[in-house]
Amino acid sequence: MRSRQPTATAFSTSDRDRPGHRAELELGPVRMSVLRFPALSPPAAPSPPHTGRPARSGAPRAWRLALVADGPLMLGRGPGATRLDPGQLVLWDPWEPFDAAAADRARPPRAMVLHLPGNALSLPHHALRGMVARPVPSDAGPAALLARFLEGLAGPAGAVEIPQATWVGRAAVDLAVAFLSSVTDVQDDAARLPRQVALLGETKTYIDRNLGDPDLSPTTIAAAHHISVRYLHHLFRQDEQTVGGFVRERRLERCRADLANHGLAGQSMTVIRARWGFQDAAVFNRAFKKEYGITPGEYRRRAGVPVGFR
Questions:
Q1: How far does Cα 31 stand from its chain's mean position?
Q2: Which of 68, 143, 190, 279 would suit a FRET pair with 100, their CA atoms being 20 to 30 Å apart?
């Protein structure tokens, strides 16, 4: 009889930067939060001056894609705040504070929020920017599929066994991309620059499939697609990324997911980092700490992976 796998259980946190009650679910490349607010929210404190880059908190900077299940909910502060009614989806800028509050005294809101690293979304950066703070109903098409998926994860039957959490997270990314591509101007971009847009997607797919190759580099990527290294860098600049940065972040995401996976507790740090292309332990440790704010070993301890298998 198969032993029961550990589940990726949600945990609650509450501090001054996190409104209301918050439960979180780690799903490999993404994270989902479920926010609940009291029926009567206290007046919001004045917003601190916006300083640009947010403080690092152990997770990569991420776009927030929110679905309001009950509500309404207000996002942002002051005259620029966005009202979200139940059933609406909205994309939030990773550079902006995610300030949320109840909009109706009698109807306490609840929201599901996907935290999506920018390099997980195969969409042009400017197209995502154009979608920020624009509520979209989730009554049909990809929006409806994404909404039902998020509601299912947040429900009592949504517990995910840890070995499958990464796959569920990737499914969440795919649904988010399907939704966002249906409501952004990416279709117009593709019509104007079909080869460039398609080629960028092909190179990112190639990178994802070859992350474990320690020789993966701009030269090998460009050669595999019969383009020059210079043109490869041009493609990524159009998406406000660098080739090396994209490869590094993808590798770190895969390592982070494996380190938190109880099903891989028997695998050493060396095996995990090497599987995703990090041959040098010092380089891996520095890159991981710079991206997430803590060392790989500390991250694994916080994930509750058994001590004897590090």
A1: 6
A2: 143
